[in-house]
Amino acid sequence: MLRAFLLAFSFSIAAGAAVPRACVSVVKACRAGGFVPGKTNKHPGQGIWADCVRPLAKGKAVRGVKGVSKKAAQACLTARHPKRKGKS
Length: 88
Fold this sequence. Notes:
Number of domains: 1
Strand content: under 5%
Shape: globular
Helix content: 40-55%
Structural class: mainly alpha
Number of strands: 0
Largest sheet: none
Number of helices: 4
């Protein structure tokens, strides 16, 4: 029982640490703007990556999100998907 708890706890820590360092400020700004992490089936149009970070990386304004530059959002996407360099 304890082993199962520790295993689940370690997975939850790993999932929380999945945000690359370059993305911390961008994700914080998106969350402050009302965007939610994970699958957005319950919140269409409010996903952090698809509806906030990607548009910011393309230079588009995102309602409710302030203080994030296009360059910072692009660095975040590159850090999250290194093989997709330059593609947002």
